[in-house]
Fold this protein.
Amino acid sequence: MNKAQLIEAVQKNLGGETSKRAASDALDAVLDSIAKGVKKGPVQLIGFGTFKPVTRKARTGRNPKTGAAMKIKASKTVRFVPSSALKKAL
């Protein structure tokens, strides 16, 4: 499912009176709120899962083309942990 399909699904769930623009704005607001919230700490959505900020340590990697060793800098990323309800739905 891509973002356009997700917007259509949100529009259908909200009812026939809802426009695609309103569904798109609602989805964008939710995604922006999650992105801003995860900067401060974990964002937990009961019944769906938790978005956690994670720091990766610096490490040594290999260039796959040449095989030469290279340093990979430390970085920040987001890890998603699904809830048990979401796992059961699969």
